[in-house]
Write a structure and sequence with these properties.
It is built from 3 helices and 3 strands. A 3-stranded antiparallel β-sheet has the order 1-3-2. It is elongated, with a radius of gyration of 14 Å. It has one domain. The chain is of the alpha+beta class.
Length: 72
């Protein structure tokens, strides 16, 4: 059976795509993935793996750079 899972985190969405999951669209700011229900636990586990990865650290640094003040 196929199910849909959504994620609001752009970095996590990219991480899922790097790990075989295909984004099928967006709903507001959420990225929608269509997965087999047998992969649901792996999908959730992969998010926890992302949070502890260098990819998450990189994404956090990018977000911090966006917030730097302008210098004259």
């Amino acid at each position: 059976m196929v199910m849909q899972k959504s994620i609001d985190d752009l970095g996590a969405g990219a991480y899922y795509m790097m790990h075989k999951y295909e984004a099928i669209g967006k709903r507001g700011k959420a990225i929608i993935f269509e997965i087999d229900d047998k992969d649901s636990e792996e999908f959730d586990r992969l998010y926890r793996k992302y949070l502890n990865s260098e990819f998450h650290r990189f994404d956090s640094c990018i977000m911090s750079l966006k917030k730097l003040p302008q210098i004259n």
